[in-house]
Design a protein that fits this description.
By secondary structure, the protein is an alpha+beta fold. It has 2 domains: 199 residues, no CATH class; 44 residues, no CATH class. It is built from 6 helices and 9 strands; from the N terminus they run H-E-E-E-E-E-E-H-H-H-H-E-E-E-H. The strands form 2 sheets. It has a 7-stranded antiparallel β-sheet with strand order 2-1-7-8-9-6-3. A hairpin with a 3-residue loop joins strand 7 and strand 8. The radius of gyration is 22 Å and the shape is globular.
Length: 280
C-alpha cells in the first residue's frame, strides 16, 4: 500500500521571533530628550546558556560547636554565559521574512516619537530600519552598504546586517567617547525561562569559524561564534517589584526592580514579564 506523497506543511517554530537580545542604548544629550536606541538581534540557531547566582553568607565558627552559624548578607547578581552563532546563510534565508516590528521590543510599546525619529514612514523591512540607524549614527558603514536602497533583495543587505550586528556586540561593553553615556542594557528573551531579563555585558568573545569558509566578495566569515558573559541588573525604577502583564497602567520597569523568593510563591517567576509559556 502506497502512502500519499503529500506531506503536511512544517509548522514554523517562529524561533527567532521568540528568542532574541534587545540592546538598549541610552544617549545622554544636554538640553534635549533623546529616546533610547533599541536594536534587536534574533537567534537563528539554538543558543547555549549557563546560569549561576551566589549567596553572600557570613560564617561564624563558634568554639566547641560542631557546625557553623550563618548570617545572610544578600546575594550577588545572576551571571549568565551565553553563546550563539551568526551564520551568513541563515541571515540571507530569513532576512526578507522579517517585518519592522521584529526589530523593536516584542513586549514594550514603541512610541510614535521613537518611530518618527528612527524609522522612515514607509519602512517595512529590517534592513530599512538598519539603514536608518546606520545613516544617523553609523555613517562610516555607508561604503559597505548600498545607499540606493530599493525593494529588490541583494546580498549587500544580509552582509550589512551581519557586519552591523557584530559591531553591536563589540559596543556592548563600552560607553560613549564623551563619557556621558554608559554601555547598553541587554535584555534576553528566550521562552518562559528568560522573559526580558536585563543584563550588563561584562565581556564578549568573537570566534571566527574559518572551517566554514568566507564570503568571496567581502571576506566576511560564513560563521562567527559569539560568547557573552553578562550580569543581571535589577534597578528598574527603584520601586516595588511587580511583573509587567501588558497593562497600560503599569510599566515594564516595575518588573526590573529587585524581587525576593516570596514572588515565586505568588506569581511563580522573578522575571520582568508575567506571561504564560510562549505557544507557537
Amino acid at each position: 500500500m502506497f502512502r500519499s506523497s503529500r506531506k503536511k506543511p512544517i509548522k514554523s517554530r517562529k524561533f527567532s521571533e521568540r528568542g532574541f537580545l534587545e540592546f538598549s542604548f541610552d544617549p545622554m544629550r544636554e538640553g534635549s530628550v533623546v529616546s533610547p536606541i533599541k536594536i534587536t538581534i534574533p537567534f537563528y540557531e539554538n543558543p547555549t546558556i549557563s546560569e549561576f547566582k551566589q549567596a553572600r553568607l557570613g560564617k561564624y565558627k563558634l568554639l566547641g560547636r560542631n557546625s557553623n552559624l550563618y548570617s545572610f548578607q544578600g546575594a550577588d547578581s545572576k551571571t549568565l554565559n551565553l553563546s550563539f552563532n551568526f551564520t551568513l546563510d541563515h541571515i540571507i534565508a530569513h532576512l526578507e521574512s522579517y517585518s519592522l516590528d521584529n526589530f523593536v521590543s516584542k513586549n514594550q510599546k514603541t512610541s510614535e516619537y521613537e518611530k518618527s525619529r528612527f524609522f522612515s514612514t514607509n519602512a517595512d523591512t529590517p534592513f530599512t530600519y538598519l539603514f536608518n540607524v546606520i545613516a544617523n549614527y553609523r555613517t562610516q558603514y555607508k561604503d559597505l552598504l548600498n545607499e540606493n536602497i530599493d525593494n529588490n533583495f541583494d546580498l549587500n543587505k544580509p552582509r550589512g546586517l551581519y557586519y552591523f550586528w557584530v559591531n553591536v556586540i563589540r559596543s556592548s561593553v563600552i560607553g560613549t567617547s564623551d563619557q556621558k553615556s554608559p554601555p547598553p542594557i541587554v535584555r534576553l528573551s528566550f521562552g518562559p525561562l528568560y522573559k526580558r531579563v536585563p543584563f550588563l555585558v561584562e565581556k564578549y568573545q568573537i570566534q571566527v569559524e574559518d572551517r566554514l569558509g568566507y564570503d568571496v566578495e567581502t571576506l566576511l566569515p560564513k560563521r562567527v561564534k559569539i560568547s557573552l558573559t553578562m550580569e543581571e541588573i535589577r534597578v528598574g525604577n527603584f520601586g516595588k517589584y511587580k511583573a509587567y502583564d501588558g497593562n497600560s497602567s503599569g510599566s515594564t520597569l516595575d518588573g526590573e526592580n529587585v524581587a525576593g523568593w516570596e514572588y515565586i510563591m505568588d506569581t511563580g517567576s522573578l522575571d520582568p514579564l508575567r506571561s504564560p509559556p510562549t505557544s507557537i
